[in-house]
Design brief:
Blueprint (H helix, E strand, L loop, with lengths): L2 E4 L6 E4 L1 H9 L8 H6 L6 H20 L13 H9 L7 H26 L1 H14 L1
Antiparallel strand pairs: 1-2
């Protein structure tokens, strides 16, 4: 289900759904159930709303060209599989080399966090004292 938004000042009438619809509402725009109703009650646009509205309108025009707007043949708003793919990314389709790289990145992150915590808590001084004693023995 989508919502129609119309704007004053040379902007077109657009049909938004999902996250884009919520962005328009957060920007302060009011949407309507039908295109005619939206065009009869156009939203005014101030200078702070113009930039984000330009992005929403450009995205809508792209969706029309690719037929991926709500109700279009390439729309995936209600496809649970596409929602799952967005949530998980491409995690299940990567090869072993990519897995090792990701594991290495996580390990490096843990090491960097440990070094940072050691510096903050002063554990670093105790470790260096133990290391000095160990090298003398």
């Amino acid at each position: 289900m989508a919502t129609w938004f119309a704007f004053q000042g040379g902007y077109g009438t657009i049909e938004l759904a999902g996250a884009q619809e919520k962005q328009a509402v957060i920007l302060g725009f009011h949407g309507y159930a039908t295109k005619a109703e939206a065009e009869a009650k156009r939203n005014s646009v101030n200078i702070f709303q113009a930039g984000p509205l330009n992005l929403l309108e450009a995205d809508y025009k792209t969706a029309l060209k690719t037929d991926s707007q709500p109700g279009g043949k390439n729309s995936n708003l209600l496809d649970p599989k596409s929602i799952f793919n967005v949530a998980t990314g491409d995690a299940f389709n990567i090869n072993a080399t990519q897995w090792f790289i990701r594991i290495g990145e996580v390990a490096l992150g843990i090491v960097l966090i440990a070094i940072g915590l050691a510096k903050l808590t002063g554990v670093q001084n105790k470790i260096s004292q133990v290391a000095k004693v160990a090298t003398r023995v």
